[in-house]
Design brief:
Rossmann fold; five-stranded mixed beta sheet; four-stranded parallel beta sheet; 12 helices; 39% helix
């Protein structure tokens, strides 16, 4: 009888252990997280779903990265900043949930779409990512501010978007492509001695005689490409007003215009007549015949299309070739831009992106 009792006891103990192990396994399985935590551009810790398949993206800069890493099919709605045309035509049928990336956000429309995540700007002065989160997080919608328009943070933001959309390898490839252009330019441009650098008047898109100051990213790009922004020392702001007398007194070597407004160049523009007229009108201004850049035809416009978002890194090639053509004889910015859009966006582009070119 004792033998039977021991056997029964062993069986009961074994069954108990098995049950305990099974229960522990169930608990362990239930403890598998359904989210991962990322840190957005505003420094906020954001819990995002492990698998993001429905994303509302308000900024074109973030969308450019998302498409470049092959996750564009996850985008279900955008903002009014996505205009029809060669760049965003494939998003033209998607719902618009705001007037722009920063204005008139329709929270009811977003809630009705039930996205996994909403991606807007994180540190833009006009953005309030926390207010957006307060409105949407009670419904279980993650909100992340991912800028994708600043040189110093863009590489890490590409990596973050790769994590969010499960495209880590593709994000690493994209990041390497962009940063390699920047590194190539800097390796040569930053080595140019101060007394051999090209002196530049960089005009802000806000209007004539509005110079870019030390706070503009153009100042950094000019320095990296072997130039000097001659007005950076006069103001820490991103831009400020000057006058003809100050311009003639300083007499820069090169005149660069951020052509977000005028002259009209960029994607889809193949006629240079407006740009030519723009520069001729400035040559005809009183006193401009005294300026070195007018005398030696070193007046150039750079399209706003390559001045913001990830294409800033390709913009480095344009700055390098316009400012120091002899140091970058084999660099063809237009060819780089064509390759970029073909390789990462499956787009065939045409347009004038710098006028007049030096390549």
């Amino acid at each position: 009888m004792r033998v039977h009792k021991v056997t029964v006891l062993v069986v009961l103990v074994a069954a108990s252990l098995s049950s305990t192990a099974w229960a522990a396994g169930v608990q362990q399985q239930a403890a598998v997280p359904e989210t991962r935590t990322i840190v957005d551009s505003a420094g906020r810790a954001v819990a995002v779903p492990l698998e993001v398949t429905r994303a509302v993206v308000l900024s074109t800069a973030a969308a450019e990265v998302i498409r470049a890493i092959g996750a564009e099919e996850s985008i279900i709605a955008v903002s009014g900043s996505f205009r029809e045309g060669p760049l965003w035509g494939d998003f033209s049928e998607l719902p618009r949930v705001s007037a722009t990336a920063l204005r008139d956000i329709d929270y009811e429309a977003i809630l009705a779409l039930a996205p996994d995540i909403v991606i807007g700007y994180g540190t833009h002065p006009a953005a309030d990512v926390q207010a957006m989160s307060d409105a949407l997080s009670p419904a279980g919608i993650a909100v992340a501010g991912i800028d994708c328009y600043k040189f110093e943070t863009l590489p890490d933001e590409i990596t973050t978007l790769g994590v969010i959309f499960g495209r880590i390898t593709e994000a690493a490839e994209y990041r390497e492509y962009l940063t390699s252009i920047d590194e190539t330019v800097r390796a040569i441009g930053e080595a140019v001695p101060r007394d051999q650098r090209v002196r530049v008047f960089a005009q802000h898109h806000g209007g004539d005689y509005r110079a870019m100051g030390a706070g503009s990213e153009w100042t950094m790009m000019i320095e990296a490409a072997g130039g000097i922004n001659v007005f950076a020392e006069f103001s820490p702001a991103s831009s400020f007003d000057i006058d003809t007398e100050r311009l003639i007194e300083i007499n820069p070597d090169v005149f660069l215009v951020d052509a977000r407004s005028v002259p009209r160049i960029g994607f889809g523009v193949t006629d240079s007549s407006e740009a030519e007229q723009y520069f001729q009108e400035r040559r005809d201004r009183a006193g401009w015949h005294l300026l070195s850049f007018a005398q030696y035809d070193r007046m150039h416009a750079i399209a706003g299309d390559i001045g913001g978002g990830p294409t800033k890194f390709l913009g480095m090639a344009f700055f390098a070739r316009l400012l120091q053509p002899d140091l970058f004889p084999d660099l063809n910015p237009d060819a780089l831009l064509t390759e970029y859009y073909r390789r990462f966006h499956s787009l065939v582009i045409e347009g004038i992106f710098a006028w007049p070119p030096t390549w």
